[in-house]
Write a structure and sequence with these properties.
This protein has a 5-stranded antiparallel beta sheet. The chain has 4 helices and 5 strands; from the N terminus they run H-E-E-E-E-H-H-E-H. It is of the alpha+beta class and 165 residues long. Strand 2 and strand 3 form a beta hairpin. The chain has one domain: Butyryl-CoA Dehydrogenase, subunit A, domain 3.
Length: 165
């Protein structure tokens, strides 16, 4: 007996899944790269801010000056929510809501990062040198918005098919 039904694509191949996966990649890159760098004038000491804290990396050794574990934990939480959202493709309304929560969290993360960079710069009396990863939460928020649009299109298509039956 031959199965004449069309093979359905796995839901992992949807464009919104790609957007959410790119969000995970950007946040992973953010974890492993410095957010900003400060150079202290007299000795040209190099102070680095990353998600783990403030580090003095002027000589060969790296010394942790201040710990920011909450920033790391917050990024991991956003990544976990995004990862779970990818696999909720059968519950599109919940997927949209979780994407909205993720966008709010990413914008909040961007605000906290900006506050930390400026506050540390004022304390060190140094101007921050921003790295490219500083804007990754905003790019990830835009990617999540694009994922919401794709999910909403899927939901509209399913509802229109239900009306035709």
């Amino acid at each position: 007996m031959v199965n004449l039904q069309k093979k359905q694509k796995p839901m992992i191949q949807r464009i919104q899944t790609l957007f959410m996966f790119l969000t995970l990649v950007l946040l992973s890159i953010l974890i492993y790269n410095p957010i900003a760098t400060y150079f202290i004038e007299p000795n040209m000491d190099k102070i680095v801010l990353n998600v783990f804290g403030v580090q003095n990396s002027s000589d060969l050794s790296v010394e942790l000056l201040q710990n920011y574990w909450f920033l790391f934990a917050f990024i991991i939480l956003v990544m976990l929510i995004t990862f779970v959202t990818i696999f909720l493709y059968k519950r599109r309304v919940l997927q949209i809501r979780l994407c909205i929560v993720t966008i709010v969290m990413l914008v909040g993360l961007q605000g906290v990062m900006y506050y930390m960079v400026t506050a540390i710069g004022q304390n060190l009396h140094s101007k921050p040198h921003y790295n490219l990863v500083f804007i990754f939460p905003l790019i990830a928020a835009v990617l999540n918005f694009l994922a919401i649009r794709g999910i909403a299109k899927d939901e509209a298509l399913i509802r229109s098919l239900d009306r035709l039956r």
